[in-house]
Backbone:
């Protein structure tokens, strides 16, 4: 009976060790893949990210929103002309130069409105150039080292079945946490791109007010929002760079399971900071 018991315990021990290493190995592969995709996705321009959606948004902006923006521009410039005339001492003094001023502002407004989509994409083109430059500087690997698994395997062979069962439960919990984190990262990164497309689709409306003295704040706030979401990509790259340095500094010797929990903690911290990047970018540019 002792032989059978020893064999059963050894079989259960090997099963738990194999399951733990399998769970944690898949965990690291998932984390490394997801973080690597962040850097590549953030570095994509809207027209590269999804050409089909880009073509749809451009067509929607130019055929549906632009005519409405033209009506808005007519109202805005008429309102601007009335104010230019009334402001001249309640019509007691009228100088013809204000009409040249109004014509010039109207011409500029028409040019801006006619090239709205190109202007919006130019802003993102500049921001993506900055992101690509940052990606060239950030050379640290974001991959969680698998060396700790080798260290952990040696430690697991010295443990009894009871502690191994506890570690197996921890590996399951860690796996569930990482799955949730992968979903969060996906939502943050792809949600930013969806926000880019949504902002681009409505671009003609705020830009129609850009040359107006009374309503121009709408257009300028919109431009700030565009620049903020564009440079949010740079902040995301900064977060990834910090994450890479912290992950590579995790000691793999000693308590391997603590190192694994530390890598999970850094991934949670990465998700938290990614959530904050949009607010930080808007706060810096005053886009509220």
Residues:
């Amino acid at each position: 009976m002792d032989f059978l018991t020893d064999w059963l315990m050894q079989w259960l021990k090997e099963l738990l060790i194999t399951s733990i290493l399998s769970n944690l190995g898949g965990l690291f592969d998932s984390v490394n893949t997801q973080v690597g995709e962040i850097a590549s996705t953030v570095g994509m321009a809207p027209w590269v990210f999804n050409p089909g959606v880009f073509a749809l948004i451009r067509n929607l902006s130019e055929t549906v929103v632009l005519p409405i923006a033209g009506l808005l521009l007519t109202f805005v410039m008429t309102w601007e002309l009335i104010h230019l005339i009334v402001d001249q001492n309640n019509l007691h003094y009228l100088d013809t130069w204000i009409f040249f001023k109004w014509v010039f502002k109207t011409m500029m407004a028409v040019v801006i409105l006619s090239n709205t989509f190109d202007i919006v994409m130019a802003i993102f083109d500049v921001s993506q150039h900055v992101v690509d430059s940052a990606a060239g500087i950030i050379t640290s690997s974001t991959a969680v080292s698998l060396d700790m698994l080798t260290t952990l395997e040696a430690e697991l062979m010295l443990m009894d079945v009871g502690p191994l069962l506890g570690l197996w439960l921890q590996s399951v919990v860690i796996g569930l946490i990482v799955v949730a984190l992968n979903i969060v990262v996906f939502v943050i990164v792809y949600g930013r791109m969806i926000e880019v497309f949504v902002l681009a689709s409505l671009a003609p409306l705020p830009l129609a007010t850009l040359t107006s003295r009374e309503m121009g704040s709408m257009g300028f706030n919109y431009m700030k929002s565009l620049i903020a979401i564009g440079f949010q990509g740079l902040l995301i790259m900064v977060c990834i760079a910090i994450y890479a340095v912290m992950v590579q500094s995790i000691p793999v010797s000693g308590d391997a399971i603590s190192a694994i929990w530390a890598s999970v903690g850094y991934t949670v911290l990465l998700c938290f900071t990614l959530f904050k990047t949009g607010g930080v970018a808007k706060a810096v540019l005053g886009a509220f």
